[in-house]
Amino acid sequence: MRYSDSMARSAEHLRAALPLMTKQRAALHPTSYAVWYEFVSGRNPRLNQALQIHTAGGNTLDEQQTWAMYREHVCELDPALGGRIADGFSQVLDSMAASAAQAGQESARFDTSLSAWVEQLLSNPPPQAQADVLQELLCGTREIRGALSDLQQRLDSSQGEIHSLREEVQRARGEALLDALTGLANRRAFDQQLQQCISAPMADAAQAPCLVLGDIDFFKQINDSYGHAFGDRVLRAVAQTLKNVAEQTAITEQAGAIGAAKAATIAARVGGEEFAMLLPTGNLQQAQAMAETMRSSVAAGRIRRGDSAQDIKRVTISLGVAQMSAGDCAETFFKRADRALYASKHTGRNCVTVLAAA
Ligand SMILES: Nc1nc2c(ncn2[C@@H]2O[C@H](COP(=O)(O)OP(=O)(O)OP(=O)(O)O)[C@@H](O)[C@H]2O)c(=O)[nH]1
């Protein structure tokens, strides 16, 4: 069970959460309560970190941001399970619709035979009592047919609803894995992909997955000088640049692959101003070249402030590159790329460092 706090403890959380919730721009509904309950209980460090960043400098969360927080850090919906439930419903309805259609056909056949018998009997009049019984049977059968056809119509429309539900689940699945600000994959999606890479058998160590971590330089100064909203714009612009370069790299990989299509590079936002690019196949030189293109593209980009014709000071990014080695788990692989990134920060920023496995 997700929440196992005692009555007294949860009442305490309620008292702490309410004033925080009322400050927000989102309505007071169970979703926003779940977000702020988890915040005050301190049980979800990643949520707390994200909320602290979002509410820095007195910012408040609107409806969309509250839902994004919920989806990314609180919601436990397993989208695959949601999909299976919708599929299950759909199958049940399919088989009910088929049974109803079959029952309808059978009752129609019975109705036809009954009508023929009634014709016969009326041309050779039976005693009145028997004729009445037959007429009643005929009416009853027609009613059954009518009811079955209604049922079938309702089943058809339920099918339509299930179809939209399935689309909704798929959409929610997509959103649950996307970073709401930049549209890149979020930390959750990245962790899943990284885990998949780690679990896959490694055929050739030289072609093992590579990880590129990037972190915008002096981002706090950008926020402090131009405001948080402008900081968000910078994040979106950098994300778009990284995504474009990652996609170009994927195209090059596919063009270079003989026969087999290689998996695309995944670009994700894994923290406030931190990004991760995972190349499922390739080699360290390719990853380094991609990181270098990312660095130079970000540095060459120009972002204008809305209220000014002037560009702001150049935005740069530091990057670290590492390749997975045989003994790695997700954590050791990530940490090596992180060490490479911090080496870039310490050698002056706006550069790329590659760290080979020890
Ligand atoms: N606008 C905006 N700012 C964010 C977001 N997430 C994190 N930040 C800010 O990013 C800044 C990160 O600052 P630091 O970790 O000190 O790093 P830095 O200033 O980039 O310095 P170096 O990394 O050492 O070059 C903090 O001020 C955070 O508040 C966000 O979603 N939007």
TrEMBL record:
- Keywords on this record? Coiled coil
List, for all copies, the residue spans of the domain called GGDEF. Answer: 207-357
What chemistry does it catalyse, as a reaction equation? 2 GTP = 3',3'-c-di-GMP + 2 diphosphate
Please name the SUPFAM superfamilies in this protein's record.
Nucleotide cyclase
One Pfam family from the record: GGDEF
SMART domains in the record? GGDEF (SM00267)
- Per the UniProt entry, the Enzyme Commission number(s) are 2.7.7.65
Q: Record's InterPro entries?
A: Diguanylate_Cyclase (IPR050469), GGDEF_dom (IPR000160), Nucleotide_cyclase (IPR029787), Rev_trsase/Diguanyl_cyclase (IPR043128)
User: What's the top EC group for this one?
Assistant: transferase
Q: What start-end ranges are recorded for coiled-coil regions in this protein?
A: 148-175
Origin: domain of life: Bacteria
In terms of PANTHER family, this protein maps to: DIGUANYLATE CYCLASE DGCM-RELATED, REGULATORY COMPONENTS OF SENSORY TRANSDUCTION SYSTEM
**This chain belongs to which protein, by name?**
diguanylate cyclase
Q: Which organism is it from?
A: Roseateles oligotrophus
